[in-house]
Amino acid sequence: YGCDLVHDEL
Amino acid sequence: MNIFRLFGDLSHLAAIAILLLKIWKTRSCAGVSGKTQLLFAVCFITRYIDLFLHFVSLYNTEKVMKLIYISASVFTCYLIFFKFKATYDGNHDSMRAEFLIVPAAGLACLINTKFDAIEILWTFSIYLEAVAILPQLFLISKTGEAETITSHYLFAQGSYRALYILNWIYRYHYESHVDTIAIVAGVVQTILYCDFFYLYITKVVKGQKIVLPA
Fold first, then answer.
1. What are the transmembrane regions (chain B) (predicted)?
2. Which secondary-structure segment (H or E) carries B18?
3. Under an 8 A CB cutoff, do A10 and B119 touch?
4. Among candidate residues B77, B80, B93, the one with its CA nearest the CA of residue B141
5. A9/B122 touch (CB, cutoff 8 Å), yes or no
6. Residue B156, SS3?
């Protein structure tokens, strides 16, 4: 929750 | 990780290395837009701000890559604006960077996934990266030519996001992963390179130099 938005690309 | 993203990141690293080598070897940044390099440095810092907030041990390549991107782009700016300042072509590097930064910042506040500081910085970084190459393309159109090594730099830089588009198609199909903002910005970014790609493929590959019709 909260950091569910993970941009996992560079 | 898929092959497209791997080669995309390698192409990006190659672009950064080519430019650094060109400036370092020729001890000149003629034909290089300092503004574009500044914008890229801003992109990396705002996108990888998490590195500075909660420092996590460099246990994975991603953290190392982020640090390489930030340090290499800052070092490139140092070379252009300090060490080899005398060779910086300020007159032709005249596109107003504010006209790129302000709209990107405004748009990031309007269209984003979540209205919180880190997410807006990331979104700003994505929008800015899409247009960051414009001062460089503008400088080439003003000088009417591009050194061959600079053309290779641009080709690698343009290919990186083009490969990322293939990566996004792959991830949509196999992982049903979609990051709309990154995809739209990435498509715009790649479209900006189209005429350069055409010139590169038709000229540089045959050993000719890119000379734009004055």
1. 36-55, 67-84, 96-115, 121-140, 182-201
2. helix B3-26
3. no
4. B93
5. no
6. helix
